Amino acid sequence: MYDIIVVGGGPAGMTAALYAQRNGKNALVIEKTGFGGQITHSPKVENIPGFASVTGNEFADAMLDQILGQGAEIEFSEVTGVRDEGDHKVVVTEDSEFEAKAVIIAAGVKHRMLGLPGEDDLVGEGISFCAVCDGDFYTGKKVCVAGGGNSALQEAVLLAEKCSEVVMLQDLDFFTGEEKLQEVLFARDNVKSYAGVKLTALHTAGSDAAGAAAFTGAAGGEIGTDTTFTGVTIEHTSGVSGAPGSQERIDCDGLFVAIGLIPENDPFAELCDLNSYGYFDTNETCVTKTPGVFVAGDCRSKTVRQVTTAAADGAIAALAACRYVNGL
Fold it and tell me: Is the pTM value of this prediction over 0.90?
């Protein structure tokens, strides 16, 4: 039996494992895909204290090496649930079960995607999700922002300070973010907006050179090898910004997608309260209604989701879990 099992191998989960091991507890980290979480999508990160510049993968690898060096164990599998057995918990995966005195759920979130061909290949190579993380790379360049809620507007406000032009693309006929944010953003001379449009294609230098209609992913040999992002195609759906059914190519250097985040907390809903958006309904203490079960990182209700805040959650949750284990 482990002292602490951590569900999720992002910055929150790996920080939790680090603090657990440093406090004399043996920890197991269970990750379903790859260690690092969303940070691995960033080819260059400049807002992590202590690093002038580091790639997301380099940072994730350094964290993984650190927790392994402290004695943490890792397991690659998808967690399907957690059973509360009173003085211990049972973490259920696709092919096994693991017991621990305490569990920290750091399942993270995933970005809602556009669902376009080639999109996954271009994440971190023209498609971004975070203006704070990646906005500097587009200084003096033209970018598009997909989305019309508060998150999209806030991203665009930051980008408008750096970029030569910001083009807002909203699928609804109107922008849903706060009016004050809209006033601030759309007062900028370098901001243009389209409402009632949907993105239908992504373009790269390779697809342009090949005369292809759009980037179709690595398997589409006809696009060539140059996947430098060059723009998007939109279709006007309602006539707000153009004739219904007409399509328009927008050349740009980058696309920021801000159409929502998807928490994956349903398997743990019996143990931890969820808010109306599906996030764990807990505060900075990272405790839940179930003794011995803690949450950390982007999967919980919070206003700021950055690598630094995820790591802070991991430390807080781990110290709380250690105190719980000590009290058993």
Answer: no
